[in-house]
Every structure is written in C-alpha cells, then in structure tokens.
Design goal:
The structure holds two protein chains of two kinds. Chain A is of the alpha+beta class. Among the domains of chain A are: about 45 residues; about 80 residues, Alpha-Beta Plaits (2-Layer Sandwich), CATH 3.30.70.920. Chain A contains five helices and seven strands. A four-stranded antiparallel β-sheet of chain A has the order 5-6-4-7. In chain A, α1 crosses α2 and α2 packs across α3. The radius of gyration of chain A is 19 Å and the shape is elongated. By secondary structure, chain B is an alpha+beta fold. Chain B has two domains: about 45 residues, no CATH class; about 80 residues, Alpha-Beta Plaits (2-Layer Sandwich), CATH 3.30.70. Helix content of chain B is about 40%, strand content about 25%. Chain B has a four-stranded antiparallel β-sheet. In chain B, β3 and β4 form a beta hairpin. In chain B, α2 crosses α3. The N and C termini of chain B lie close together (about 10 Å). The relative contact order of chain B is 0.16. The chains are: A alpha+beta, B alpha+beta. At the A-B interface, β1, β2, α2, α3 and β3 of A face α2, α3, β1, β2 and α4 of B.
C-alpha cells in the first residue's frame, strides 16, 4: 500500500513562539480533566462537567472557545502511527535562507503529509539547517519519496538537507499540565 | 485486528469530533454506527494501542509554559547511561535516538523557561556533554491525518 495522507485543515497558520494566552482556573481544570482523553460515555461533556464542578453547557462553550483560539488543535482519535504501520519516522532538516523561511514553510505544509514543521536556530558550523519537517512512512523507500517531494516543492530555496531517522524511541510521553 | 469499520472511524474522526450533548450519536450517524457501537469500537482501539488517545489535542505552547528540542552528540559506549540520565527528568517528554553525529534528540517541556534552562544545565553538568538548545522560532501548523 502506498502512503496516502491528507490534510484536514487547508489553511496554514503560523504561530509566533510567545503567543501564550491566559488560561483561567476553570479552563485549566477542563484541560487537566481531558488531557488524557474524553470519557467514553454517551454524554462525555456531562462527565467532564461533573468532574470540574460546572455545567455541561459551560464545558462545551469553553471547549468551543479553546478550539477557536487554537488552544485545542482538534478533537478526535489520535492514532499511534507505529500501530498503523508508519514505522519510519524521519526528521528532515533543511537549510533555507532566512528570507525564504515563510515561503518554504508554506510550501512544505501545503504538501499535506508533514506532521510537524518548525523553524529552529542553526548551530554553525556543523548544523546549517533551520527548517524541520517530520515525515512518517511505512518503509524507508516511501520516506525517501516524501523527502524528494519536499525538495521538489522547495526548488531553489533548498540549500541543503538531510534526514535523521529515529533508530530507537528512548522515551515518549505527552506534554503534561499539572492540576 | 482492525476491520473496515475501524479504519473508517480512524480516517473520519481525527478531528471534528462534535462538541454537543450526545457527540457519539452524532458522529456515529455519518459512519452508519449506533452510539453504543462507536463508543465500544473506540474503547477497543484504545485498548489495543491502535489509538494512543481519544479526545482534545491541546496546543501546549499556548498555556504559558516553554518547551524546546535538544540535540546531543553522545559517545556510543555511554549512550544508554546518558539516555537514562536524561529520561530521569520528568520534564523530558520525548527522546529519540537518531542516525547522525547528533544522535540523541529530546523535547524538554516545563511550566517556565527558567525551569527548562535549569534542566538543560543539569543535563550538561551530569553528563559532561554539551547540550544544544533548538527552540522553535516559528511553527507552521498542519492538521495531519494518518490513513489506516
């Protein structure tokens, strides 16, 4: 089976790093109650409401607001991509001119198969790369094809790249907020 | 083993789960599944590890904490020992071995930038190896779906 991934939101948005928003104590309680998941019951938001001590109407309104603000990226199933057979996790890294970063990032994310894309600092002299894009594929060949597609999309903006495959997962936990 | 119904659930529900009174009933309609069947299918997929989570995916960057990606070049004969030292920090969320001179890559996340910097300083002191801090400067957002 060939890899086929598509993007659910076509709009590309860019976050600057210090765009933190204020989370009040009720939002925080909702986050703590749901960061491991929604209860698998017919009325999950009622169950969250009971745990937090507010009405289900308020839970839903606050969660809708968090979706709109981008604090919740999405709500749904989160597949373990290894279990789905996407065992090749490649961190592709690219050297593009600072002035090309926005255009290159937009070109990359428009491809629809990259899971994360960030600009990070270079570490001269040994690390000239400033754009990071994660690719996931079922085998090495499929991963290489994806990297070639990124290179094509970047064209002359690409001054050099490499792919660092993960050879071992040493630790994997989510980012946590404590209550 | 996953069947076609499981695949349809995974492909349809990686985003857009309703925020409503009875969201499973609503989401089930589009998939031709009853509320009970959708709930028990998702529970089974969680149980078997095909799904790592079900629910809201929060953007941790928006909550005032700080996180960064760190690269280290670890001598092969000390690799496992250094991995254990690094992983012992609760603030280390992910850690991968990769095929490069920089062979250890981990994410440090904490409530404050100061605490992240403290963890980096401690890792450097403990291991005697330089840590390379590569914080995000720009994030390009994408909603990626994996096809089952």
């Amino acid at each position: 089976m060939t890899q086929h991934l598509d993007s659910i939101d076509s709009a590309i948005t860019v976050d600057s790093i210090d765009s933190a928003i204020t989370v009040d104590s009720i939002d925080r309680a909702i986050i703590v109650a749901t960061q491991d998941g929604l209860p698998l019951v017919a009325r999950p938001y009622d169950a969250v409401a009971e745990q937090v001590g507010i009405s289900a109407v308020e839970v839903r309104a606050r969660m809708r607001a968090m979706v709109e603000a981008g604090s919740i990226r999405r709500i749904g199933v989160v597949p373990n991509h290894y279990a789905l057979g996407y065992g090749w996790n490649g961190m592709s890294v690219w050297d593009v001119a600072d002035d090309d970063v926005m255009a290159a990032g937009a070109a990359m994310t428009a491809l629809g198969f990259i899971s994360h894309c960030y600009q990070r600092p270079r570490l001269p002299p040994h690390w000239p790369y400033n754009l990071f894009a994660m690719v996931h594929a079922r085998d090495h060949g499929a991963a290489q094809v994806l990297v070639e597609r990124i290179a094509l999309a970047l064209g002359g903006m690409n001054r050099g790249h490499r792919v660092l495959y993960s050879t071992r997962i040493l630790k994997k936990t989510g980012l946590r907020l404590t209550g | 083993m996953m069947d076609d119904t499981d695949r349809a659930i995974i492909n349809a529900l990686q985003g857009g789960f309703p925020i409503s009174e009875t969201p499973f009933a609503e989401a089930g309609l589009a998939l031709g599944l009853s509320e009970d069947e959708l709930i028990s299918r998702i529970a089974a997929l969680r149980q078997s590890g095909v799904l790592s989570r079900f629910g809201p995916l929060y953007n941790a960057d928006r909550f005032g904490g700080h996180n960064t990606l760190v690269a280290m070049a670890v001598p092969v004969d000390r690799f496992d020992q250094v991995a254990a030292q690094v992983n012992a920090f609760a603030e280390v969320a992910h850690n991968y071995q990769r095929d490069h001179h920089f062979n250890m890559w981990f994410v440090v996340a904490a409530d404050s930038r100061a605490r992240v910097e403290q963890v980096l300083t401690e890792v450097q002191a403990m291991t005697g190896l330089p840590v390379h801090d590569m914080p995000k400067l720009t994030e390009f957002h994408i909603g990626l779906k994996f096809e089952a």
